[in-house]
Design brief:
Radius of gyration: 30 Å
Helix content: 25-40%
Strand content: 15-25%
Oligomer: single chain
Bound molecules: adenosine-5'-triphosphate, magnesium ion
């Protein structure tokens, strides 16, 4: 089978400078050298134990000693589970893959659940490929380019030297064009990739620095290379198993990576790739880099998915799987089986569990202050006190949303500082979950498809059985 080695260094997601996103203020876990969390650092506040645990996990991931293990971050809504996962992603090494997905993404029409999971797992496993290429590296002594009289084409020669030797090479058409385009002249130090003919200019030779003085400060000077002109150079690039799958699974595979039009990948393709990668590893040409797969809202998955995850984390090439959930003791999706976090016991048994706890009002205030700075919102002390009170009594997320809204309200009255009144207006314009619930109870008759009868009881769709309104909400760890 012919393998297309992707000629890319690394495929990174486009990261836009975006400050409105819920977690844009998170820049890392905010730990010191001994992995102890600083109280307020890198956008992270409080949640000390969970951050410390996350730091230890991060260290194990970097050492490669956690592969095939899975972690669950469990806690009430808005306690920073997703934030911690984002912070971990920011602190991972450059070429360690990190894949983030919400549980619901697995239920798509384009592919089966197991295919979606397989792709997610393979996106999270890196292959560090070492390639040796032959290059010629030297200082240009002279370049000669002639126009051919017979066909108008150009021919040329270049003389390159190191401190030890000097050799003349014939130039091909492409190389001549490159030399003209990059304005390569005598005194430049260049490399030529022997297989592709690509020319790279490294700088000007120090030996001739006096001649280039007049060119201003932008010139970069390098030493004239030593020894042989021909050298072997090792280049390393990391791609994910998924990228290799895509590139090899269709004619225009490489483009599919950009268009996102991937579809299902045949298992034969994956088998061949696994065999090839195993071969490369044996030859010492490639290394596996286990990355991280983060599945948020994991309680959305069903037994089939959990069985898949169970098996996948025990396979030889497995990333570290981090999951998050805000569910307490609840039913596993599509079953009547009740279990902690809505996860089956055999999966729970394999997990390291980190818990997040509700914030104190002081921590809420610090997080809200960071968010105001992030969104460039000036806010006075009184308004901040009120916002903090709202954050503690309703939810942190709701208070974060009010920042943006109250800022617009303050701008409308041509002020550049949010005051208490702006916050109260925002608070009455946009209601939080509790008030929304109360409103629904009051006006429930006027809504379509209401499942609560006149006495405020839930009406079960299937058998018309009445149930306490609050019962189904016990699933969620708090909310109330
Ligand atoms: N310790 C923290 N430091 C700074 N910001 C935080 C912290 N915890 C949470 N936040 C911010 O508060 C908001 C809510 O947190 P997050 O979305 O992480 O909660 P969650 O636990 O994932 O909730 P859910 O269970 O509803 O998904 C986010 O904007 C997040 O960035
Ligand atoms: Mg979350």
């Amino acid at each position: 089978m012919s393998m297309n080695l992707p000629k890319i260094q690394e495929v990174k997601d486009l990261s836009r400078i975006e400050r409105i996103g819920a977690h844009s203020h998170i820049r890392g876990l905010g730990l010191d050298e001994s992995l102890d969390p600083r109280t307020n650092s890198q956008g992270m506040v409080g949640q000390i134990e969970a951050r410390k645990a996350a730091g230890i996990i991060l260290k194990l991931i970097k050492e490669g000693s956690l592969a095939g293990r899975a972690v669950l971050i469990a806690g009430q809504p808005g306690t920073g589970k997703t934030a911690i996962a984002m912070a971990m992603a920011k602190s991972l090494g450059e070429d360690v893959p990190f894949t983030m997905m919400a549980g619901s993404e697995i239920f798509s029409l384009e592919m089966s659940k197991t295919e979606a999971l397989t792709q997610a797992f393979r996106r999270s496993i890196g292959v560090r490929i070492k390639e040796e290429t032959d290059i010629i590296e030297g200082e240009v002594v002279e370049i000669e380019i002639d126009k051919s009289v017979t066909n108008g084409g150009k021919t040329g020669r270049i003389v390159l030297k190191t401190t030890d030797i000097e050799t003349q090479y014939d130039l091909g058409q492409k190389m001549i064009e490159a030399i003209i385009k990059d304005k390569i002249v005598a005194g430049d130090v260049i490399t030529i990739d022997k297989s592709s003919g690509r020319i790279t200019k490294l700088g000007k030779s120090f030996a001739r620095s006096s001649e280039f003085d007049a060119m201003g400060g932008q010139v970069r000077f390098v030493q004239c290379p030593e020894g042989e002109l021909q050298k072997r150079k090792e280049v390393v690039h990391t791609v994910t198993l998924h990228e290799i799958d895509v590139i090899n699974s269709r004619q225009q595979g490489f483009l599919a990576l950009f268009s996102g039009d991937i579809g299902e990948i045949k298992s034969e393709v994956r088998d061949q790739i696994d065999a090839k990668v195993a071969e490369w590893r044996e030859d010492g040409r490639a290394e596996i880099v286990p990355g991280v797969l983060f599945i948020d809202e994991v309680h959305i998955l069903d037994l089939e998915c959990f069985a898949f995850i169970n098996r996948a984390i025990e396979s030889e090439q497995a990333p570290v799987v981090i999951m998050a959930t805000n569910r307490g003791i609840t039913k596993i999706r599509m079953t009547n089986q009740v279990s902690p976090h809505g996860l089956p016991l055999d999966l729970l048994d394999r997990l390291l569990i980190i818990t997040t706890k509700p914030y104190t009002s002081d921590e809420v205030k610090q997080i809200l202050t960071i968010r105001c700075e992030e969104e460039d919102v000036e806010i006075n002390e009184e308004a901040m006190e009120l916002l903090t009170k709202i954050g503690t009594e309703t939810s942190l997320r709701y208070a974060i949303h009010l920042i943006t809204v109250s800022n617009i309200i303050s701008q409308k009255r041509k002020s550049n500082e949010v005051e208490m009144d702006d916050i109260s207006q925002a608070y009455s314009l946009f209601i939080d979950v509790e008030r929304s619930k109360a409103f629904l109870r009051d006006y429930e008759k006027d809504f379509m498809f209401s499942e609560v009868d006149e006495d405020g009881h839930n009406v079960d769709n299937d058998n018309n059985k009445k149930e306490e309104t609050n019962k189904s909400e016990n699933d969620k760890m708090n909310l109330d």
